[in-house]
Amino acid sequence: MPRGSLVHRAHNEQGRAAARNAVEGKAPSAHSAHLGAGSVPRSLRQREKPSMFHTRPLVWGFTVTIGVLIALVLALTLYNLGSVLISVFAALFISLGLDPLIRWFQKLGMPRAWALVTVIALIVAMLATILLIIIPLIIEQVQQIVTTVPQQVAALEKSGWFTQLDENTGGLVGTVVDWVQKTIADPKFWATVGGGALQVGFAVTNALSSGFFVAILTIWFVATLDTMKTAAYSLVAASKREVFSGYANRIMDSVGRYLSGMVILAFINSVFSVILLSLVGVHYAFIIGVAVFFITLIPLVGTVITTAFMTVIALFVSPTAALITLLSMLVYMQVEAYILTPRVMSKAVQVPGSIVLISALAGGTLAGLGGALVAIPVSAGIILLIREVLIPAKQRQ
């Protein structure tokens, strides 16, 4: 065989060996080092295993399609179960809010079993009070609102201060009141209200059934909260279980104190509002107090909203009543901010005002008033987790 062909063949074998070494990640041998890196094609050195998209595109397409369909089915299922999931989360949060009350009874020397029985009895008594006393009062005062609003509007037009205000605004206020009266006298308006009332009736029925479900589920969660915690902690690895349970207990305790504190503050605000409106002469103060209780569960903005709302309602009685209501609520807001809140919320997580507003807005956009109420305790838990876990970990690094 000619010498040139032998040399050419040797060079080819060395090139193939260098290419295999490059693909397998091996260093070139000393014998083939003289060939240089330029002898190994770049395509061989950068060759990778082809993906399923290139080798089996049909299988890849079916896999992606099935994954998308499963995701859509899960999303549709969660959407249809939205009310049930909201009820479950509401019951869970209420049970966390009642847990500090159970521990308070335990501090008084009561065994936990009797403390649970006492709290459950209080829940049942509260439900009975709502069904037998509060709901009939609400229905009665709604009827009063329907019958007295036209009379109050007429009396408002005849008052001297309203006439002066109408003249100062160039008749704008009188035009608005006339439009309201014509709208109320229009039969089409009442037909629309009738259809809306029917929808409201269905909504009230659904709310009552959901409320009953939440109440029963809350009683169950309160009675089995420790068992649920133990079962959840058992899913964590044994090496990390103690640390995880410690952080989880602190978060749940803080959220529970936050919820119970907000309920106490809202109840005090509601009672004060009912007493104040009754003193200034508002006939349906009780139903306004019920609305105040739920609105003031939202910190910062809740009291401001109820103050403006109560001032407008008192304006139908007299300007003096509205002024007294406004000044009294401004004084109460200072008392709540500097006396009540520090005492009630001393052991809860302190949530910055900006986080409260953002959480309330996001939760309200997603799930209405209930979402706004739940979003703030969730933010409190996240803040505690960041303070106790994330920041110390970053400092250790």
TrEMBL record:
It holds the Pfam family AI-2E_transport. It comes from the Bacteria. It is found in: Cell membrane. Residues 1-23 are annotated as: Disordered. It is a multi-pass membrane protein. InterPro entries: AI-2E-like. The chain crosses the membrane at residues 57-78, 84-102, 114-139, 200-223, 258-278, 284-305, 312-335, 355-386. Keywords: Cell membrane, Membrane, Transmembrane, Transmembrane helix, Transport. GO terms for cellular component: plasma membrane. Belongs to the autoinducer-2 exporter (AI-2E) (TC 2.A.86) family. This is Putative PurR-regulated permease PerM. It comes from Microterricola gilva.
